[in-house]
Design a protein that fits this description.
With 231 residues, the chain is an alpha+beta fold. Helices cover 20% and strands 30% of the residues.
Amino acid sequence: MIKKNSRSKINFIDFSDKFDNDIIALQSLKCNDNLSFEKNLVTVIESIDLSKKDIAYSNQIHSNIIKWVDKPGLIKNCDGLLTTKSIPLCIQTADCVPAFILDNTKNFYGLVHSGWRGTLKKIIPKAVKELVKKGSNIQHISVLLGAAIEECCYEVGIKFLKQFDKSCISKRNDKFYFSNSKQIELDLINIGLDINQITISNECTYENKELCSYRRDGDLSGRMISIIKRK
C-alpha cells in the first residue's frame, strides 16, 4: 500500500496494517537523489511530523551488531536497533532488506538493516533472540521484511552457492540469482518463528524505479528511510 502525505509530498510504502493498531511502520520511496543521507533523513521524518532530535538512527556498517536504544540520537556502528521505549527508529536502505520487528504483547520493537553480509551473519535472527532474552515470547514476535532487491534481479557470484541455502539461489542462463528475503525467512523459521509470523514485501527495489537501488543506479541511487514508531 502506498501512502501519500499531502503536506510534504513524500511517498511511503505503509506496512502499518501488518502490525497492531498502535504501530506505524513506513518505508520511504525515492526522494531527491542529490540530498545527503542527513538531509534526506530530515526531509522524510519531518514529513510525518517528527524532527531529528526525536529519532534514533545508526551509521550502518554491514555488521551483525544490534544495540538497545533508550534515547534518541545517532547510535554508532551497528545495523540493528531495538527498544522498549516509545522512540522512533530509522534505518536507510537501497537494495538491502529492512526488517521491522515487533513483539505483539510487549512494548518492544526494532529495525534491522540486512544486506547479504548481515544475512550471512544472521543479524535478523539475532535481533529476535535479543527480544527473547529481554522477555519476549517468540510466538508473539512478528517480522516484516520491507522492499529490497529480489531474486529476479539479484545476480551473484559462485561463492554464494556455498554461503547460503541452495533453495534461496536460482540459476538462469548460466547466471546465479539470490533471494536475500527468502534466506532471512528460512533463518527465522529455523530459530522457531512460524511462517505466519513473517511477512515479505513483494516490491523489488531494482525493478521499481520509484524505489532506491544501489545496484541499478550506483552513487545516484539515494536511500530509502524506514521508520517504526508508536502512534
